[in-house]
Amino acid sequence: MSVLLEAHDISISFGGIRAVQNLSFQIQRGEVLGLIGPNGAGKSTCINLITGVYMPDTGYITFDGTRMTEKHTIRERVHLGMGRTFQTPRPFGNMTVYDNVFTIALQQNSFAEAHAKTKEILEITDLAGNANMISAKLPIEMRKWLDLARILANNPKFIMMDEVMAGLNPNEMESSFQLIERLNQAGITILFIEHVMHAVVRVCSRVLVINEGKFLAEGEPREVLNRPEVVEAYIGGKRK
Ligand code: ADP
Ligand code: MG
Which of 7, 103, 180, 203 has the fewest CB atoms within 10 Å of its CB? Predict the structure, then answer.
């Protein structure tokens, strides 16, 4: 494995809140890395720093060998191969599932290529049977997959998923796990932020735990989740 993304000593504060503090980590090409920690630990802020929503106050991020600077706008980072989901999926509700993906695929492809690409993406995301459905009518888990399908239309190397399992029942979760596995097998590196711990154990090869913006632990998911300092951070977080 080689390094796809590296954070070197990144920090950011909002007013007096030190959301991320001197954090360093690496994401290996091809892995599914879990990023966990109690509410307010700084997980979504990490995604915002990686995607270019914010620039860090200290430190820097490299992606695929390139050091990210102010010049790398959100859009440019998408072109370099970064994709992200949002906690609430936001596909265009009044368009069909097919058109939602096709309009994005068309931005970088000819009409015929965009059509082929859309079909391929709808297959991998299990949405082919719903291609002609108006997306607002999709059940919640399929709206989440459509969110992923739209991301795939930009050919990402790396996808960040922020609490995509929230609100899913066990069956919907199981099909989502299988989708994540298919994406990973297709060569996409994944950063998986999640509160549902059995989901983390199921999909992640490694986890990074942060608390109050700082590094807390890192390693094999099951083992790390049982470490006293990790258990304490979660219990402490719930008390607040
Ligand atoms: P998590 O995703 O782990 O729950 P966040 O990264 O959303 O945590 O937030 C970390 C801390 O930074 C929280 O205290 C949050 O309120 C604060 N924070 C995040 N973004 C902003 C912002 N844009 N302005 C002010 N505070 C923020
Ligand atoms: Mg968050």
Answer: 103
